[in-house]
Design goal:
The structure is a single chain. With 208 residues, the chain is α+β, with helices and mostly antiparallel strands. It has one domain: Glutaredoxin (3-Layer(aba) Sandwich). Helices cover 45% and strands 21% of the residues. The protein is built from five helices and nine strands, in the order αββαβαβαβββββα. Strands 1, 2, 3, 4, 5, 6 and 9 form a seven-stranded mixed β-sheet that branches. Helix 2 links the parallel strand 2 and strand 3 (88-95). The longest helix has 29 residues, at 179-207. The radius of gyration is 20 Å and the shape is globular. Residues 13-28 have low confidence and may be disordered.
């Protein structure tokens, strides 16, 4: 009897534990889709597109100086970790007229890391509002057409987020003013969506 117990502990339990955790990855390894078919920034006469990219999408607004802190938080906590992934990008929507301010911001961000995957798209305020409305979130743009929240947009132009966040319930975006939120929530969710696409690529390769 003692031998059987030892065999169960040594061989059966590890297998059961593996199957348990493996099923957990399969069940919880996808970031929920909150909104489908959002408007692509390519519609704004831009060469930038959400299609076939994993995008961190934000609304910088006309008062760029005020958003520098949030931009640096994102640069350090999210961009630096993930920018080397092939299909990863940042997209910031900015009102026309703020080009010089953005140029200055890019120079400062570029002193810390290669920012070739930071994309700034300029548009008039009505176009910015239309793109924002297509996200269908519970967050509002301020009078400068900005928000501290940034969003995860997948390759199929769907907004990804959380449906059962412990603080907000449905979580559409991440507050870039909060280093804690970037560290404790956004970083995890970006890892999940990148892993999701890596697994899909491996599966497609194996099926060929």
């Amino acid at each position: 009897m003692k031998k059987v117990f030892v065999l169960v502990v040594l061989f059966i339990l590890p297998v059961v534990a593996y199957l348990f955790f493996a099923s957990g990855v399969n069940n919880f390894g996808k970031l929920p889709i909150l909104t489908e078919n959002i408007e692509d920034v390519s519609s704004l006469n831009s060469e930038v597109t959400f299609a076939n990219k994993i995008s961190i999408f934000g609304f910088l607004g006309s008062n760029v100086e005020v958003k520098k802190g949030a931009a640096f938080n994102l640069n350090q906590k999210i961009y630096k970790q993930f920018f080397e992934f092939k299909d990863f990008q940042f997209v910031m929507l900015v009102p026309l007229g703020a080009e010089d301010k953005v140029k200055e911001l890019k120079k400062e961000l570029g002193g810390l890391v290669n920012i070739n995957k930071w994309n700034f798209v300029f548009a008039d305020t009505s176009e910015i509002q239309n793109v924002y409305n297509s996200l269908q979130t519970n967050i509002k743009l301020d009078s400068n057409y900005s928000t501290p929240y940034v969003f995860i947009v997948d390759k199929d132009l769907s907004l990804r987020g959380r449906t059962s966040d412990e603080d907000e319930g449905t979580k559409y975006g991440f507050n870039a003013n909060s280093v804690a939120e970037l560290n404790n929530k956004m970083e995890d969710d970006v890892k999940i969506i990148l892993a999701e696409y890596r697994m899909a690529l491996k599966k497609n390769a194996a099926n060929r």
